[in-house]
Amino acid sequence: QAKDAGKNCYYIYDVEKDHQRFERFSLGADLRKGIQNNELVLHYQPQIDAVTEKIVGVEALVRWQHPTAGLLSPDRFIPLAEELDLIIPLGEWVLKEACQQMQAWIRQGVPDMKVAVNLAGQQIAHERLISSVEEALEASGLSADHLELEVTENFVIRQPEVTVGKLTYLRERGITLAMDDFGTGYSSLSYLKKLPIDRLKIDRSFVKDIGIDRDDESIIKATLAMCQSLGLVVVAEGVETPDQLSFMRDNGCQIIQGYYYSKPLSADQLMDFLVSTGQLQAEV
Ligand code: C2E
Ligand code: MG
Ligand code: MG
Ligand code: MG
């Protein structure tokens, strides 16, 4: 009896595992094709000046229009792309597309703003990082001061010297550098001093507990004070409520990103957002 049950459990477990393996395998094969077949799309989430409430940038966030599974979020396929060595072509596509779109918007007369692109750790470590960025700028005609690159804390620790060298080059080139998901990684505060960054994005996990958790509020306040004395601009991620907005603004956070102002939008929806908020003349 016990043996049967054990066997049975093993069998169920195995099928489940097999299924997962199959899903990953087939999604992986699809992803390779999907990148070539132009199934990736970028959505853009507005970044708003906390004081003027005008747009100052957008973060480009990739989605995958899968032929049968629908629109997939990056959490479903970015880790897969990293495992399958597809993150380099994927990342290069994102860079090119984001720069091209931003340049097209500038021609349409949008307010002065930047497009922020997320870089995976492997992209930063890769020898082609600098040339991919240069190619994306050159192909689109976008000037470097309209491009922002987001890096996370975790990868930086692996190869500090090489990383610092590359990031320094990009920053001297006029590109804005932001530390993403600040507070969730393993970095020490000394990295903030060593890394050539302009901005720091406070992770949503801190912002969501404003008004609920005094400790999170203290951490945010301390981070804002520290950034002020280091001359770093702070972006709050995941601001959803008026209370979160006023807390961040009143404590000196300059830029707000989150559902309070807008979810990530398709390129067309972003134009509608700018028109409806009076920041762009409607096309005639
Ligand atoms: P991230 O860079 O930290 O991006 C912010 C994420 O928070 C986005 O999720 C965004 O939709 C979500 N978000 C923004 N405001 C709010 C809010 O008010 N409430 C809530 N609940 N969520 C909010 P998304 O688009 O699903 O992206 C998830 C992650 O996938 C990103 O986190 C980033 O790490 C990664 N990712 C997205 N696009 C790319 C890409 O092109 N390349 C790479 N390497 N990673 C990417
Ligand atoms: Mg980001
Ligand atoms: Mg983030
Ligand atoms: Mg995040």
UniProtKB/TrEMBL annotation:
Signal peptide: none annotated. Residues 24-278 form the EAL domain. This is cyclic-guanylate-specific phosphodiesterase. The chain holds residues 669 to 952 of 952 of the full protein. It comes from Amphritea japonica ATCC BAA-1530.
